[in-house]
Amino acid sequence: MPSIKAPRLLALFQKRIDGDDALLELARLRFKEAGLGAEYYAANSEELSWLLNYQPRPEAPVIVHLPREIDLFDKEGRRKLLSFAAEFKERVYGFVVHDQIEIIDRFDEYKVALTEIDAALQAVKRSPFLFIEYAAGLAPEFFCELIESIQELQQISACIDIGHLGIWQARDAFRRKHPDEDICGLDPSDAGLSELVEDVQAAVKTSLPTVLRLIRRLGGLGKPLHFHLHDGHPLSTASSFGVSDHLSFFTAIPIPFLFKGKRALAPMFGLAGIRKIVADICVILDGDYISFTLEIHPTAGRLPLGDASHLFNHWLDKSNAEQMNYWLTDLLENHRLLQRDPVSRP
């Protein structure tokens, strides 16, 4: 049966664009209007304390993505994590850390580290969860085996980043047909791409089934799961951060030639794909076990500030503020997509 309680709905809450804290005030305004929760990136406790000043929904605990360099094999890395958990236990639902490629050769050692962390988290009253994010490029089968091996740990589970997983799958599928080519290394502006585009899109179409299989497998464990939701395509150059995912689900990938009557390629998931993903999740897990973060990066564009103009009266040039507003509008458009389908407002 579908979930009775709605999942937590959040989005990436950061500046990501140059400017002062008026940009965060703008984000708080737009998130609050939409009833949208926040996922923060925080390098240290001071930064997290500062960001929490702009929490759009103070009654709703946030998700916090900890620094990518945190190493759970390292005692100091574990200490930092537990320090965050103890200090912010009342305000944070869960922390996210990246998985690590070293797990392949140090599987048992990693399990021991997670067991130690879980025991320490359980000792913290109202402890946040720890979500291990699929991010380092591990084979999906291996990542599933890792999460299954810690099924008994109460405070630790998985963060399934559907964009990272989809890109891994597209690269793997393309490499099977073109062993000497990396699909993410192809130039989308090259007219010679027309000779490979059929194989590119065939590889991209394998991403959705792979994501759904992993969701069904890990969802069957009955553990809380966190999801980073965003689209992508191996040929995308839209992100200013040099990655091929973290795109809106409304995105199309421009190409310099016609393919099936269009000068654009469909992304990995699109509207139909994300609807299927979310619907499957909400059938497998109770809503209280689900949290979604729209982890979509800014792209080029500007939008007038409208009712938020007063926040920037001290700015002479409002270009960056309008770019921030454009990005926030993109996030909220994707948020409305989730609300229209199987997920209702929390």
List keywords for this structure.
TIM Barrel, alpha/beta, 346 residues, single chain
Form type: globular
Report mean pLDDT, rounded to a whole number.
Answer: 94
Number of helical segments? Answer: 10
CATH architecture: Alpha-Beta Barrel
Largest sheet: 8 strands, parallel, barrel
As for the number of domains, it is 1
How many strands in all?
12
Which homologous superfamily in CATH is the superfamily? Answer: Divalent-metal-dependent TIM barrel enzymes
Quaternary organisation of the protein chains:
single chain
Secondary-structure-derived class: alpha/beta
Major β-sheet strand ordering: 1-2-3-4-5-6-7-12
Residue share in β-strands: 15-25%
CATH topology description: TIM Barrel
Describe the structure.
Helix 3 links the parallel strand 3 and strand 4. About 40% of the residues are buried. The strands form three sheets. This protein has an eight-stranded parallel β-barrel with strand order 1-2-3-4-5-6-7-12, surrounded by five helices. Helix 5 runs parallel beside helix 8, helix 6 crosses helix 7 and helix 8 runs parallel beside helix 9. Helix content is about 40%, strand content about 15%. The model has no long low-confidence stretch (mean pLDDT about 95). It has about 350 residues and is of the alpha/beta class.
Question: How do the helices and strands line up, and which of them pair or pack?
Answer:
Blueprint: E1 8-12, H1 22-34, E2 37-41, H2 45-52, E3 62-65, H3 75-87, E4 92-98, H4 107-122, E5 129-133, H5 140-149, E6 156-161, H6 162-177, H7 197-204, H8 207-219, E7 225-229, E8 231-232, E9 245-247, E10 253-259, E11 262-265, H9 270-284, E12 290-294, H10 319-340
Parallel strand pairs: 1-2, 1-12, 2-3, 3-4, 4-5, 5-6, 6-7, 7-12
Antiparallel strand pairs: 8-9, 10-11
Helix pairs in contact: 1-10, 3-4, 5-8, 6-7, 6-8, 8-9
